[in-house]
Amino acid sequence: MKNSKLFIQSPFPYFPGTNLSAHIKKAGTAILLCALLSAPGLSLAQKEPEVTLAPDVVSFQVDQLNDFHEGYAIIKRGTASSLIDAKGNTIIPFGKYQLESTDLTEGFLNGYCIVRDAKTGLAGYVNNTGKLVVNCLYGSATPFDKEGYAVVSDKNNANLFFISRDGKTTPFPKVFFYTKKAIAPTVALTEANGVTKSLFKAKDPRDGMPSILPDFSEGMAAGKEDDQFGYYNRLGKKIIANKYENAQPFSDGLAAVAYKNQYGEVKWGFIDKAGNPVVDYKYSLQPGDFHNGFAVVYPADKTQFQYAFINKKGDVFYQVKDKGKNDHKDFQEGFAFVANKGNLDLLDASGMLNELTINTNTTDKKGNPVLIKSFDYANIIDNGNIMVSKSGKHGIINTKGNIVIPIEFESLSYYDPVAKLAKATYKVKAKKGTEIIEGYVNASGTFIMVRQVTKSQW
């Protein structure tokens, strides 16, 4: 039997607490034959978009499903957690470790996942086979970055260290503990008891303030000495002199820095990895980072335009005059979202502006393609995918406007390109009101795994 159709007005709704596979077999082809919804002006080829449930769907009796990352997801039941792969197979069983999945840790990231020993509560790391590759010795831990390093503390959360993937540690340099005049800390870590707190106080006689976790890129991160920023390697060795009022991470080989000129004005510009100015210090407002060869900059006076993109020579590439709905203005995978008369367009690296529309793969009575032009979106392009919403429903399209996941879900989160799955919820009509299906859907909108809700009679 092919995938069983589940429509919003299906007379055979999904009932929480039942065995889903048995439910599908019992419903059989009746679900396939349930009434199709139609709308005025649509041809017979334009059936209401449908969401399907795989006949071999995997169900989990759990309290929480987390997003897939790099092909793996953490599921939780009570305080216990387990790691599964994209087919629902168990990689780490419940009770072996406590797996961390928060806004900061995200589960698997750059090949590793933070785990805690069930007895000691101390943190370590596992790889994608579930093997413990860094022993559980640390009070707190961050995910490994793309360069293969993480930040951990000793078991008493008194000292910080950089740790490499082979488990070797080096002391966390003092230059990354900013003074009280620095920006307030924005990064926190989850401790053994599950409470998220700010980074620990450094044993630094100068200030004792916590640090902003350094964002290393191309082997360097901004650090501070004598109230001025410079760039250092992980050992704390100075690479670029401390002479900036503020400094951002390197991206595309350049970094945005704020420099005080001879008139006492603080202006932003860009430097290269040798510390040489590449784009003049002329911006009063902090610019964005370079991505795909372009960076967003903002005028102090927005009467003529709202923001602009510059190239690595500092030349203006494109000006955006309209106020946009989006707050993500960086180039992503060769495109940037821009506002154009209230609509959302995609600007490419050649300067071509294309209206972002959704191809519904349907036609009107005259045979013309039906396109959606007005919609909300998540302003993120990830592996060519864009999350969009229309009339309260969510789905995913690609940069060409083709639907990747049908725009039919009550909620939809990160689409993992490795697992090719996204966590979603879908509403179906039941005997008493509506019920919500929660699980993981593939690119066709089919539920591959679902969370089975159980209710105790007590």
TrEMBL record:
Source taxon at top rank: Bacteria
Q: One Pfam family this chain carries?
A: WG_beta_rep
Q: Which InterPro entries match?
A: WG_beta_rep (IPR032774)
This one is known as WG repeat-containing protein
Q: Which organism is it from?
A: Mucilaginibacter litoreus
